[in-house]
Each structure stands twice: as C-alpha cells, then as structure tokens.
Design brief:
- By secondary structure, this protein is an all-alpha fold.
- The chain has seven helices and no strands.
- α4 runs parallel beside α5.
- It is globular, with a radius of gyration of 14 Å.
C-alpha cells in the first residue's frame, strides 16, 4: 500500500523544479541512477550539503558522513548539518530570519520513504 502511494510521489518529486535545479550542481547517483537511487542520494544529505557548500563556500565546513549506507543516525546528522547551514546562510549572508517551520530531520531520517521527505523538501525549495 505504501509503495503504491510513494512511487507516484517519488516520480513527481524527482521531476520537480527543486530537483531539476539541484541537478544543475552536478549529477545525482553517479549521473545514471534510477529515480530511487537519485532520491536516496538526496535523502542521505551528502549531495545537498555539497550543494550548500557551493552556494556558500565560506561556511564552516562540518564533517559530513559520506557513507550513510541506510544508517538513520548518519542520515539525521547530515540533514541536521544541512538545516543548520541553511539557517546560517540566511542569517549571516542574507541577514534574514527564517520564520517558517523547518523540516523535521528526525522524522525524515528515520523513515525517508514515507513521503514526508518529499513534502519537507518542498519547504527547502522555498528557502533556497
């Protein structure tokens, strides 16, 4: 049942303007992955942190866990770093305060295939 709901959401998300824009920074999943492999590359937080580093190269470079291997705690740590980097960029570079609720990295990190990540990434699209 969950797969029947998730697959159309995944396809819609992977063709969204956010993902299209993110792909301009470089290929996801080695450039020839399936939608699911590219989605995992996003949800692990490694690729998105690299994108954020390109946007703000002078940011404090925190250690990203490059080999997440479906480990929820490593995924949560990477996504937490990403959210912190976005907040810092807005406050220090743009001198703006983010007033909207930010994505819940605990929920996303524990169950990235629930569809919650897709909805929360749309929030990040508004921010970036």
């Amino acid at each position: 049942m969950e797969n029947e709901i998730f697959t159309p959401l995944l396809e819609q998300f992977m063709s969204s303007p956010l993902v299209t824009w993110v792909k301009t920074f470089g290929p996801l999943a080695g450039g020839n992955g399936t939608n699911l492999e590219e989605y995992v590359a996003l949800v692990d937080g490694v690729y998105l942190n690299e994108v954020m580093l390109q946007i703000n190269p002078k940011s404090a470079n925190q250690r990203i866990n490059k080999k997440v291997n479906n480990d929820a705690s490593l995924r949560i740590q990477n996504l937490s770093i990403l959210v912190k980097q976005i907040k810092t960029y807005y406050q220090e570079t743009l001198q703006q305060l983010i007033m909207m609720s930010l994505p819940n990295v605990l929920i996303i990190g524990k169950n990235p295939f629930s569809g919650k990540f897709i909805f929360d990434q749309d929030k990040k699209c508004i921010l970036v």
